[in-house]
Specification:
single chain; alpha+beta; seven-stranded mixed beta sheet; 18 strands; about 20% helix; CCR4/nocturin_mRNA_transcr; cytoplasm; poly(A)-specific ribonuclease activity; Endo/exonu/phosph_ase_sf
Amino acid sequence: METIVCPMGGGATRLYSALAQTLNGSSPLPLSPSTLECHQPADTILDPDFCQALKGSPVCPPDPAQLLRQCDEALKERPPRFPRKFIHLSDGDRNPIRVMQWNILAQALGEGLDSFVHCPLEALSWSRRKYLILEEILTYRPHILCLQEVDHYYDTLHPVLVNLGYSSNFFPKPWSPCLDVEGNNGPDGCALFFDQSRFELLDSANIQLSAMRVPTNQVAVVMVLRCCSTERFLCVAVTHLKARSGWEWLRSAQGSDLLRHLQTLVQKHCGGSTGETSSDIPLLICGDFNAVPAEEVHRRFMTSPLGLDSAYKKLSQDGLTEPEYTTWKIRPTGECCTTLDYIWYSKDTLRVDAVLEMPTEEQIGPNRLPSFSYPSDHLSLVCDFSFKAKE
């Protein structure tokens, strides 16, 4: 199948036109390692606070610590960050794989459509939120970073994180609601980043999720990686399923479609010189599922023959219960405090070594999220994993 490179940037009309020409139903769009990075469009204006044009390449602060200090300086007047701690579940690996899952809130939606009635407009400005988003990422320095509602990929997140050693792929929604907002920065979508010092890319696919063979507006990015230190394979996916009540059946169908694609991709990389089998290749599936734990799509993942479990259940006393909330916001329709975000993992081949705790209601504050302290209505999920020994 032909490689698809996503030349995003510029006006919304041109962006939507390019998408309409490249999307071709629900088939996965494979990207070879050599063409994984979507090249910056010529008319992309790089964020002047983080990047400057030098011989046609983005240049950012040379190290994460310097960039984090830059964020701290820009945010020095803001309230303090949430004091979240890691809950350690085992001695774990000395060099664990840190994974972050986060719906960062698309800028166009935060300012234009989502109506966070108790959040000041100043707190929703990109000039402030971009520092908070990067600070969250730099504080935890994940080796694998799975993001949803990304609409500042090409001008900010991609150039900054590439200069910090990440490789990445971005896949926008076919009909992003961001495009309906005046002054938008293009469509929102899913982005998957990985630390090149820890992993080598073997394969990648962009997937437009289907329901009963009908293409939908939701997408996923999938990568097959090889761990540089252990030579073990790892299949990682990021997705964002259909939102709102009444669409439970669609989320269930989209989840089933994603599981089918993952099984196919894993089987593709079995055997050969490595001798890997499908049961040897762990899965990490991160996303905003827009589904509470009682929904059918959650049950499908729990009972999948792929042997999955939800990492954040490890925070509960019995190890069987999801957190009370991963998102907490107030809209004109009322207050919403619920769990919609998950990190699924292969329980037979991966071990959860540590989980980042949730902030308390008191720490979040009466006006909920987003706020001057936190840039999104969804909380980041961060876990440390290690490979289990092969039997």
